[in-house]
UniProtKB/TrEMBL annotation:
Cited Pfam families: Cupredoxin_1 (PF13473)
Superkingdom as given in the UniProt entry: Bacteria
EfeO-type cupredoxin-like domain boundaries: 3-89
InterPro entries for the chain: Cupredoxin, EfeO_Cupredoxin
Segments crossing the lipid bilayer: none
Organism: Periweissella beninensis
Protein name: Cupredoxin domain-containing protein
């Protein structure tokens, strides 16, 4: 299986765009979050499923490296769990 890094850019602006990310199992991935709006609770992104939490400064790209090994659906959200997204691994 190829070990090419899967890269997904996610814009954070009143939610996550896109809010569904599709990845291949067994390949490393980078989720690149860029928050473009100061409003709301979107200054943090977290995922218990994927074991990450990161602050998202305005207009700065934050890269989170993950390596999903198993197929499934993994949730991520803002710090208050109001805005949600998911990573679907096949």
């Amino acid at each position: 299986m190829s070990k090419d890094v899967q890269v997904v850019e996610i814009i954070v602006d009143g939610g996550y765009q896109p809010n569904v990310v599709n990845l291949k199992a067994g390949q490393p991935a980078q989720l690149k979050f860029t928050r473009v709006n100061e409003k709301g609770c979107l200054d943090t992104v977290q995922s218990n499923d994927l074991a990450f939490s990161a602050k998202l400064p305005v207009n700065e790209e934050v890269t989170i490296a993950i390596a999903p090994q198993e197929a499934g659906t993994y949730a991520f959200s803002c710090g208050m769990n109001m805005f949600k997204g998911k990573v679907v691994v096949a």
